[in-house]
Amino acid sequence: MNDHTTHDDDEFEDIEYVSKSQLKKEANEITDLGVEISQLPDSDIKSIPMSDSLFNAIMEYKRIKKHSALKRQRLYIGKLIRKDNWEEIAEHLRKLKEPLEQHNARFKEMEQWRDKMIAEGDKVVNDFIGQHHQADRQKLRQLVKNTIKEKEKNDSPANARKLFKYIREIIDNNEDSL
Q1: Residue 84 and residue 51 in contact, taking contact as beta carbons nearer than 8 Å
Q2: Residue 3 CB partners (closer than 8 Å, separation 6+)
Q3: CA distance from start to end of the chain
Q4: Are 140 and 128 in contact (CB under 8 A)?
Q5: Using CA atoms, how far apart are residues 121 and 176, in angstroms rounded to an integer?
Q6: Residue ranges of domains in the chain, CATH in brackets
Q7: What is the pLDDT of residues 64-88, one digit of tens each?
Q8: 3-state secondary structure of 132
């Protein structure tokens, strides 16, 4: 008799318990994936491997304006995604968003350089030139100086834009030469 009990216990040890809240979280993530897809341009949506019914549901979601109808359609999209190969859909979406995320990261880096130069002056200008040797130190220092004056006078940020534009030009040229 003990042999049966041991054998049954071994079978149950292989079963992994997943909580109801974990299942709900995963279902919401899959449903959110559909909403994220709906925010893409139509050309990108067409490039994602999915069933016709899912594609049509997403396109319908884009047309709906009423909150309650949007909520129902969102849940319907989640149901359809779970029937499709949602891992493949998520991977395709990640690949579509990758260039945009890289662009945003570069833009943020440029803004940080500009803001640090304005706040800390020559030390940061020298750090920037240390990383981007082709930058003109004199031009950069003058742009920073003009931007600081402009900020003190509460003028429109024309020089701040010029400084940002120059930083972007240097970083873009540096990346092109790599």
Answers
A1: yes
A2: none
A3: 72
A4: yes
A5: 27
A6: 17-84 (1.10.60.30), 98-176 (1.10.60.30)
A7: 989 999 999 999 998 998 888 888 8
A8: coil
